Amino acid sequence: MQLVDATELLLAALLFLSASGGAALTAMGSRLWEPVKLSARWSGHDRDQRARS
């Protein structure tokens, strides 16, 4: 006996993703799409300068 069909799993996954996206948009609003500033540690520019010296 199969408890869950593949179609039901796909539907559940799609609903979860859409609910997560909706929650993110509700919490962050338009700030969700603003760029974030990375520190030199994560941006890679610091590594390039160390390699040159």
Keywords for this structure?
0% strand; elongated; 53 residues; 3 helices; mainly alpha
Written account of the structure:
The chain has 53 residues and is mostly helical. The chain has one domain (6-52). It has 3 helices and no strands.
Summarize the structure.
The chain has 53 residues and is an all-alpha fold.
Radius of gyration: 21 Å
Gap between N and C termini, in Å?
67 Å
> Which series of helices and strands comes N to C?
HHH
Q: pLDDT under 50 segments (min length 5)?
A: none
Q: How many strands, which pairing sense, and closed or not: the largest β-sheet?
A: none
- Kindly give the count of domains: 1
User: How much of the sequence is in beta strands?
Assistant: under 5%
Q: How many strand segments?
A: 0
How many DSSP helices? 3
Overall helicity: 55-70%
What is the global morphology? elongated
Write the layout of secondary structure elements.
Blueprint: H1 6-28, H2 40-43, H3 45-52
